[in-house]
Structure formats: C-alpha cells, structure tokens
Amino acid sequence: MINPPIDEPGLGAEIGHLALSSGGETVESGFLVSALTFRLFASELGIILGRHGADAKYDEPVRLLLQDHIEEIEARRSTTVEKHVPERQIRNWLKKGRFNLKRELKGPQLKNLSRLLAMRHGANFSVPGAGKTTTLLALYEILHSDGKADRLLVVAPKNAFLSWEDEIKACFPKYKISFRRLEGEEAGVASALADDPEVCLITYQLLVNVHGQVGNWVHRHKTHLVLDESHRIKSGVSKVTPAAALKLSGSGVRRDILSGTPMPQSPEDLRPQMDFLWPGQRILPEARSRPAILEDTIPDIQARMTPLYVRTTKADLKLPRLEFVPISHEDPNCRVMIANPAACGEGISLHQACHYAIYVDRTFNAAHFLQSVDRIHRLGLAPDQETLIHILEARWTIDARVALRLKAKIDAMCQILNDPGLAALAYDPEDVVEEFPGGLEAGDVEEVVDHLVRDAD
Asked: Percentage of residues in the chain with pLDDT exceeding 90?
C-alpha cells in the first residue's frame, strides 16, 4: 500500500501515475501494488522522492522487502564468471548430505554446480540432456543440508512431471522425499498442500488459478523456487500465465531457472526470465522496436548475461557426431512422412531407441526445433552411435525463408550463450539446395508476406 502525502499534490500525482502505469490499482487511501511491482519501480520512486526532497516512511514488511532488494542488487553485481565453490568442497557436502545423493555428477554438471553455488540465484541454460535436473537436485540437497532451504517448488510443463519424479527417485533412492503434484484446481491443491510435502510440482497454467495458495505455502517455508523450461514465461507480464510465475519472483530463499533454449525468438525472451531471478534490476538494455537495432545490442547483452548463467554445450558432453542432411522434393528417393516437433519438444528422452529423425515441415519456432533434436541427441549415447537428421525442403517455397529465420534466431542464441555448437544447427538454406501461434514474430510474418507477394511473381 502506498499513501502519497495529501499536502503535496504534485508529488502525489507523480507517485500515483507511477503506481498505476506499473499495474497498481487505486484504493480509498492510496494505491495498492504487488511486491514485484514495488521492486520493479523502486528506483523510479526513489528518483521522484529525491526530486521533491521528500522522505518516505516504510512499514516493517516493506523495509524488509527493500533490504532484500538491495542485498540482491549487490549479490548480482558481485557475481563473476570466476566465482565458484571448489569441487572438493562440493563433494564433501554431498557425502554428508541428508539425502545421500546416489548419482555421481559428471564433469560438466559438477562445474555448473560450483558456479551456481556461488550465485544467490542462478540460470542453467545447458542443452537438453545435459543433466540440468540432477544438477538442480544436488544444489537443493546442499542448500537443505546447510539449513538454507527446506522446500522445493518446481513450475514446469506437465509432460516434465514424470521426469522430475523419476530423477528424484534415482538421485535419492535411500531417502523417501515426500513430493506431490499440485493438481485438481483449488480443492486439489489445497488438499495436497495440507500434507505439507517437501517437493511440489505445478504447471504454469494451474499456477494462474491457485497463486495465492501456493504463495502462502512458499512464504511459510524456506522455499527453493525453480522454473523448468523457463522460456515459457518469455511473454512476461503481458500474458496471464507468465505473469503468474513472475509474481513469485519476490518469494523464496533461492530462485533458479532451467532452459536449453532460453531465447527461442530473440534476446528479448531473456528479459522476463531475468526479471524472475533479479526483479527490478533491468539487466538487459531497454527494448528497441527495430530488429536491426536490437541485433546491434547483442554484444552488450552477452556481456551483461555471461556472469549470470551456466551452460553445458554439446561439445562439453563429447557426444558422437550429429549429421544434418538437408534434402531437396527433387530427390527420387524422397517419400512422404509425418512428424510433429512440438509434441516431443520437452520432457521426453528417445535417444536409446531412436537415432534418425526426419523434418518434413518446420515452423518459425526455434524452441520446437532445437528441443526436438535434443530428444535423440543427448547425454547417454554410445561414443560410436551416429545420429542422423534429415530436413526436407521444397525448392522455391516458404521452407527456405523458415530456414533463414531459424538461422537468425539460433545464431543470436549462439552468440549470447557463447555456444558455437548451436551454429551447426543453423545452416544456411543456400547450402542445400510453439505452441500457438507457432512461435511467429514480426520478422517471421514479414518473410511470409514477402514470399507470397514477391515470389509469386
């Protein structure tokens, strides 16, 4: 609650405009804003107060919120790529841990964990199949053993629930962790939370309807919050589902995000994810309207982002070679086949049974393409196993323009995440010859229109 001074109408008007334009609402005695909203405009509020020479009085909850906000700013600014916890210390922690972690962390996982432990909040942008879930569970085990966390809340797509449950059982077979899927709308969630489980899984969609219940549970404990497939919130507060996840950004003793494709459309996809980890800190430069200008900011975005995430690349996993074979509808051996990358894009491992994929028709959604490829090319393959990807393209059709847009998106992700391995997936169509609405953005539509108008001639 913000109560502007009655005797200073100018100051009150500025504070009111700031509160309302940021999503607050008018109430009888002032303006009501969420904790997240307050953190997002805290800097502007300070500027307004300074300009008017005014002092502010904060009640205890707001004072604690501001104190936490300042501590997080300092923590983020002090985070560097050099900061890490020694691996020997990590191994000692895990040996003494209450859960007795069964799985031995591989080199890249241990390296990521050492960096994540040196961060107050973290992002793991490792490629799918690199063991992000195991790394996160090891992180939670260490936090729990150190008394810093006692609950884990994972927001994830529903098709990832089974994977999380399997990983928990595989990592901690000697310790029966109580975990529950939060399902069944308000009544079902209330019943599950009444049992006070240690680990809760909830979908992004359901969180919209039960945010209050879940938020209360989070605040009652030392909760470690995790967004799995965090690119799902790339639309930010403009969409209901991502907004519900972002409302949790001021909660929890620790926040982590996991995604193998954190910016499937453009660097702007990173902004809401960073807002979840570091609300109100405006890590990315201000948004620009023209794509060309945005591309010019990529080196700046890379510099700002590099200390704040870890990433295991395909090269780090030392996987057997992946071969892409673009094929022209002029090949006499070509036959009609049906595939849907979106259906198997997340939470499924097929690499033990499938080593050959054929893409008949790709959309503009880079996440669907990259995630589906990684279902069959991931950690666990035999060193001599060949994985083959065929991409069918019809000459003089929209296929070439889809390939160009996917290349631009993957190239940008390659630069910002400093992962040269992604470049192999972003071939130029000249070399060949999402969920609704399919990952389209302005540049994609322009390519479609240009194809229909010009190429038809």
From this structure: 35
